[in-house]
Design goal:
Elements lengths: L6 E5 L6 H10 L6 E5 L5 H4 L6 H16 L3 E7 L14 H22 L4 E9 L5 E6 L1
This protein binds zinc ion.
């Protein structure tokens, strides 16, 4: 029996984002149409992992998703004020924080495309403000 879906999303474990991510997935037509990998720091696990096993774990999930569910897309979703990065206080300015996340996701994208050139990789930054309001930025 085969069952296919469109995408795999890699996002952080942070509970503050769950409802917003669920809504975002719904808006994109991805509810019940994507595999979900949730790891602290999301793309950080591929670029500067705390545990050296993390890159292999993430790439393995993509491989399984690709083989089993025939995904065509990987969505990398980091978020601001991420504990795995030391939170927003770890950065001097919000621009620094933004470019750290974007840079890590772009490196992660390259790494994924090297192993899975047939997949499309999208980069999304989930931004949370001090009032805990969340919005999503699509990075080109
Ligand atoms: Zn996080």
């Amino acid at each position: 029996m085969s069952h296919h879906c469109k995408a795999l999303i890699l996002h952080c474990i942070d509970f503050r984002f769950h409802e917003s991510i669920k809504n975002w997935l719904k808006e994109k037509g991805l509810t019940n149409n994507c595999d979900i990998v949730s790891l602290a720091g999301a793309s950080k696990g591929l670029i500067t992992p705390k545990n050296p096993a993390e890159p292999e774990i993430i790439l393995r999930q993509i491989e399984i998703s690709s083989n089993l569910h025939k995904i065509s897309q990987v969505i990398l979703m980091n978020h601001t004020d991420c504990g795995a990065y030391g939170g927003r206080d770890a950065f001097v300015t919000s621009e620094d924080e933004h470019s750290q996340h974007v840079g890590d996701m772009q490196k992660a994208k390259k790494l994924i495309l090297k192993k899975f050139p047939e997949l499309e990789v999208k980069i999304i930054l989930a931004k949370i403000n001090p009032l805990e309001q969340i919005n999503f930025e699509k990075v080109e």
